[in-house]
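haha ok so turns out i had the wrong file open the whole time. this is the CORRECT one, sorry everyone. sequence first:
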Amino acid sequence: LDKLIRDLEAEGTKCHYVRCLKPNASLRPATFDEEAMLRQCRYSGLLETVHIRQYGFPHRLPIVKFVERYASVVWPTAAATRSAADSESPVRLRRKVVTSLSAEDLRAWAEEMAALVRRRCDSTTGDFFMGQTKVFMRATVSARLEAWIGERYMTAILLQAFARRKRCRARYLSMQRAALLLQASMRDYLTRKVIRCIRGVTRMQAVL
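then structure:
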């Protein structure tokens, strides 16, 4: 087993351990014993582990992941301006990959974002903490950030819908103008053809 784990880790695979619980003592399918499941969770220490994580910081993100995910809702203007080169504007820097920043710039971004999160969430330092490599958040702060991301996504979806509507409407109007022009040309052709026929008939009658 150790050799297998070492081989998996050498290939870049992350190993996760799954705790298995028996749904019932008789090992029958489609049978769920709630008391037995609760007893196993209690005796294995799973409930205490969950409580400890809830009392602590259940949401832990590396600083890079934190900046990548939440920079769109708590944009560090000052840090982004300092990180920009002379030939780059903050707008161009916003499009850059966060991992391309240096460690000092990345930490400056995270610190400014942390200050903005505390200010906007009215939270204390006990709800949000930034360590050396990770950012620790309680459930309330994480839920607020995710709500902001949801609002930003909804705004983006509305803007995309408006842009698609405008593009489709312009295409529809263009096709409508082309169809009207084609119809007008066809009616003009048919009218001229009928007029020529009438004139031909009139001339034949005059000759006869």
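The chain has a mean pLDDT of 80.
again sry for the mixup
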